[in-house]
Structure formats: C-alpha cells, structure tokens
Amino acid sequence: MDIDIVNEAPETKAGIPAGAGGGHLTHDDVMRLFETYKAENDARLAAIARGRRDALYEEKMARLDAELDAQKRRLDELTLRSARPVFGRDGGMQSLDAVEHKAAFNAYMRTGESAGLRALELKALSVGSNPDGGYTVPLEIEQMIGRRLAAISPIRAIAGRREITGNVYRKPFAVSGPAVGWVGETAARPETATPVLDALNFPAMELYAMPAATPALLDDSAVNIDEWLATEVEQAFAVQEGAAFVSGDGVNKPRGFLDYSTVDNGAWSWGNIGTIATGVDGGFPATNPSDVLVDLVYALKAGYRQNAQFVMNRKTQAAIRKLKDASGSYLWQPPAGAGQRASLMTFPVVEAEDMPDMAADSLSVAFGDFGRGYLVVDRQGVRVLRDPFSAKPYVLFYTTKRVGGGVQDFDAIKLLQFSAA
C-alpha cells in the first residue's frame, strides 16, 4: 500500500536509492531497494564463485540489510498510523494530515523550517501559500483563537457569526417584504407579487497582530507554542475588533452599528437605525429618568425583545446603576453568579468600552437582539509569517486573519440618543 507518492530517486554510489533512508516512503521504494540488494548480492556470490572475497561487498550488504529492515519498520508504522484514529488534546479524533500539519507548523514557529508546511500546502493545492504571505495555522489553533475572541470581544460574543471561504459575504433580503396571503383549502392560489430583492455585502478585511518571542522561549520545549500564539494575539485582535464592530467606518475594517444613519424611531425605515431621545442633552431627565429606558425597550418589536441585551460602556453603566423605578427599586442588578452578566430591567448588560460616553447627542446605549441585528463574518484561515530579522534578537510573528461585519437587520437594534429632541 502506498503511503505517499514521490518521484523516482537516482541511486547513490553505495547502491542505495537516494532518499531511501528518510523523507517520504512508498512500497515502491522498498521494492527498488530490494532490487539493489539482490543485484549486489548476486555480484558478491559471483565474486565468491571466482574465489574472491571482497570486504567492500560485505560492508555494502550489511548497510543494505540494515536499510531494508529500517524501511520495513517505517512502512509498518505508517500503515498502522493511517488505520488508527489519532486523538487530540480535546479528546476528539484528528486526521493524520492534521497531525502532520501541526508538527510542521510547530517546526516552522520554533526554527523557521518551512519545507514541511510548503509540502503540505502544495499537496492540498493551496493557492497563494508562500513564504511572503505566511502559512495557515492548524485548525486547532484557529479554533482556539476563535473561542478566546468570543470570550473577550464583547460584540462578537453576542452577534451573529458566519464563516466564509471567499472575500465577501452577500446576504439577499426582500425590500418589499415576503409575498404571503390567506387562501381556502380548495381555493385557487393567486399569483403573488414578485418580491423586490437587494443584497447586503459584508467584505472581510485583514486584521493583524505581531507578537514577539525570544529565541530562548522558542527553544524551550516545555512552552506550548499553540497556546502562546493564541494568548498573544487574542487581546490585540479583540481590541481592534471591538472598536470596529461599534464604530468602524467600513474602510479596511468592519462597519460598526453606530456608523449607520439614524432616524427618530417614529420615522424608521430600512437602512436606518431607530433612536429614542432622552429629552436632555448629555443626560437623563431629572424626573422619571427610567421612563426613557422603558421607551427604548418597547421601541423594539416583541420578536426581538426575548433575546435583547443592553450595550454600553463602564461610565454609562455607572450612571444608569443609580437609577430607580417608580417604586424605589434599582433598575440595574448585579450578576446572579460567576460568568453571568449584570442586568438592567431584567435584560443582560454587555459592557463595551468602545461605546461613547454620555454627551450631547451621543448614542451611548444600544438595545437589541444583536444575534439577528449584527453579523460578524470570518474568513476561514489564520496565517502566520515568521520574521527573525526586523527586531533582532527577537522573532516576530506577523499573524493575520480576515474579518468583516455590519448590520444585517436594521429593525433589531435601537439606540438611546442623549439629546433634547
């Protein structure tokens, strides 16, 4: 059974096929080596028949014997590994390709040796995979980075998410709404009006981080290089994402929900985000301040309220924490347990430091079902380029991923505007 395919190699002076002692191995390699073995042994026997005993023949045969035994053992090991599932650290099965990718990536990170990654990406027919663009990290590391980002990036944690393999995700929607109607069981089905369709585009933009490592850290086999890379890039990615998902302008970055045009909620239309005014520039009314929060909650349709959350920064939350309802009970409540969120009027509060502070005309509080309202688009694949030259003696790891984002349902998010009208 072939384990891998390689080109036929020329023989060395010793009669052993070049490359037979290492690298990729096939059953044909073993057979070629055995043919060499037979030829050399025939020559040795012929010499003995002529009454000559050459020490060179004996030495060559000893080497060929050892090489045949070694190749047989390697074939047996590879055959066994191909038939046996490999278990990762998370208890799940990994394919042999995944294990090879991880080992090759580890060698690249620690030593800069990229031959293994080049061979794997060429085998997978990857395009654009070259040293100038870096190499794709193993799926396990990509998933680890994704899990960490979801835990520390506030908007990503509550938004909808879509993975793509291209550069743009296009989501169609019906501008005129769905064409539906009531009919009797046996009545004729009249032709419905042709829907007017449009599409929302969510391009994936490049986000990068450049963690640095010392040669001593890379030489330390006790350091888990996967964990180190994920830990180093998570905070940098989360900070940049958090700002873009809230207020990004869509130029070389995702478009934040605060960048879209806003209108008074009474005049709301598709493509705009509805707002509720507090009635006071830069603050809450002096009397019944909680009423504006009630108005904000009920500006959202019932279908969105069941999964809705408040989004604000720490300073705004501190101001709202002081508010009470008509019965004297505080509107804000602390988390009920570890890992849970504080609540405001029974709805979870998400603390996003990129939300603006309370000021005249500011949009400092958002409320809505962000899972339906805002979409985060991740292009599959995180790439790493090792740079040992730019910051000697440190080694830089230029790490990139492609991320996009934008509002996908303009009716699912409402904003509280701190303005007089």
CATH topology of the largest domain: Major capsid protein gp5 fold
Q: Average the pLDDT over all residues and give the rounded result.
A: 82
**Major β-sheet annotation:** 8 strands, mixed
Order of helices and strands: HHEEHHEHHEEEEEHHEEHHEHEEEEHEEE
Radius of gyration: 32 Å
List segments where confidence is low: pLDDT < 50 over at least 5 consecutive residues: 1-14, 18-22, 83-93, 127-131
- Binned, the helix content reads 25-40%
Our measurement of the CA-to-CA distance between the termini, rounded to an integer number of angstroms, reads 78 Å
Q: Can you list the strand order of the major beta sheet? A: 9-10-18-15-11-14-13-12
Task: Give the CATH class of the largest domain.
Answer: Alpha Beta
Number of domains: 3
What is the count of DSSP helices, taking H or I runs of 4+ residues? 12
Strand content: 15-25%
Number of strand elements? 18
CATH architecture classification of the largest domain: 2-Layer Sandwich
Structural account:
The protein is 35% helix and 22% strand. The chain folds into 3 domains: 1-84; 86-134, no CATH class; 137-174 and 195-421, Major capsid protein gp5 fold (2-Layer Sandwich). It has helices spanning 27-49, 55-83, 96-111, 115-123, 139-152, 154-158, 215-219, 225-247, 290-299, 302-305, 314-320, 370-373, and strands at 86-87, 93-94, 135-136, 160-164, 168-174, 197-203, 205-209, 212-213, 262-264, 273-277, 309-312, 332-333, 343-344, 347-351, 362-368, 374-387, 395-407, 413-418. It is elongated, with a radius of gyration of 32 Å. Strands 9-10-18-15-11-14-13-12 form an 8-stranded mixed β-sheet. Strands 3, 4, 7, 8, 16 and 17 form a 6-stranded mixed β-sheet that branches. Strands 1-2 form a two-stranded antiparallel sheet. Helix 1 runs antiparallel to helix 2 and helix 3 (96-111) runs antiparallel to helix 4 (115-123). With 421 residues, it is an alpha+beta fold.
